[in-house]
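# nightly structure sweep
# worker-07 picked up a monomer target from the shared queue
# config: single-sequence mode, recycle default, output format = C-alpha cells
# input follows
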Amino acid sequence: MQAHIITIGDEILIGQVIDTNSAWMAQQLNKIGVSVGQITSITDSPEHLVDVLTKSLKTYPITLITGGLGPTNDDRTKQTLAKYFNSELVLHQPTLNQIKKLLNARNLPLNNNNLSQAMQPEKATILNNTMGTAPGMKFETDGKVVFSMPGVPFEMKYLMSEYIIPELSEKYKLSPIINRTILTHGEAEAVLAEKLQTWESQLPNYISLAYLPSPNMVRLRLSAPGNASTNIANEIEAAITKLYSIIPDIIYGEEEETMQNIVGKFCFDNNFTISTAESCTGGSIASIITSIPGASNYFLGSIVAYSNNVKVNLLKVSPETLQNKGAVSEEVVKQMVIGACNATNSDFAIATSGIAGPDGGTDEKPVGTTWIAVGNKLSQEAQCFCFGSNRERNIIRASASALNMMRIFIKKAIENNK
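# output follows
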C-alpha cells in the first residue's frame, strides 16, 4: 500500500520554512505498513494542486495534503478541493463551535475570516481539529481516499494520530513494516560498511539494511515487512545481537536515543554532575545538554573560554602551557577539564579547543584540528580529531564526539564503582 504526500505553500518552495511535516508523516505511515511512494511540494496555486492531485489519484490509493487551510486569502486548498470534488461549501456547526471556543479562550473576536473557516465541503467527512481553527477533511472517490490537513505541525500531528492513522490501519488491514535502528558514532559510513560486509551478507533476503549518515552519526536501519516471516522480529533481534559483538565500541544507542539523553541518564541515575569548558564549540555542547528537560539535576554550568585570557583567569590554564603547547593541544584541554570541575564543583567535565575554520589553520594544525578532553579532577582522557574545513560541520562533529567521550568515560566510572 502506497501513499502520496503533498505539501502546499510558497514558503516551503522559497526555503523560508522547512518541510518537517512530510518526514513525520512518512514515519507514522511506515509504522503501519504504508510506504510513501512520492512527496511533492507545490505552490499555493489552485491550478497546481488540481494538476498534482489528478495525477496522484491515478497512481496512489492514499493522498495526504497539508497546508492552505488558514483564514487568509492565500489559503485556497479547501475551496480548490470543494470544486474538484463538485461539493458546495456549507456551514459546519461543530467547526464554528470549535472556532468560537478557541477565540474566546484567547479573548479574540470572531471575524469574517474565522467564520469562513466554518464553511466546509458538504461531500467531505470533517475531521474535528481541537488544536486549531481549521478542521481536516476526507474525500473518497473510486476507492481512493484524500485527506487534507492544516500545515501547522502540531495540528497535522493531532489529526494524523487521532483520525487518519487509526482509519488507515483499520480500513486496509495492513501488515506493519518492522524497523529497528541502531545508532553509531565514530566511524565513517564507508569504513563501517566495510567492517559489516560479512554480517550484512548473512542477513535474510527479506531484511534490508540502510546506512543513514549525518555529520554526527551513522544510523543503521534494519527493515522487513511484518508478514515476511512469523519469526521476523526474532531474526532482526538476533542480527542486532551479532552486530553488537562486531562493533561494540561504535554503537551508542538505538531508535530515537540521543547522546545527551544517555549522558543525562547516567548522571541522573548515579547522582553525578557535569560541566563544560568550551572554546571552539562556543557553548554548543552546553546547549545540547540543556535541551533535555531535567538537565538542571546534573548540569551545573559552562565556561565558554574563547580567548586565552578566559582560559587562564577562569579555568586556571597555565600561561606557560598555552605559550609552549598552544591553545589547541592535549595539555590545554586536560587543564580546562580540571578548571571546569573546580570552577563549578562538578564531578565530570568536557573541554574543547580547536580550529573551527574556515581560516586560522597552519601546516601543523590545519583547519578542523580539534582537541577534546573529558574527565574529572584526578583523571582526564583526551583525543585529537581532524574534522575538515567546514565550520558548521566541525562544531556539530566536535559536540557529538565530546558527548560520546563523556558517555564512555562515565560508563567506565560506573562500572568501576560496581
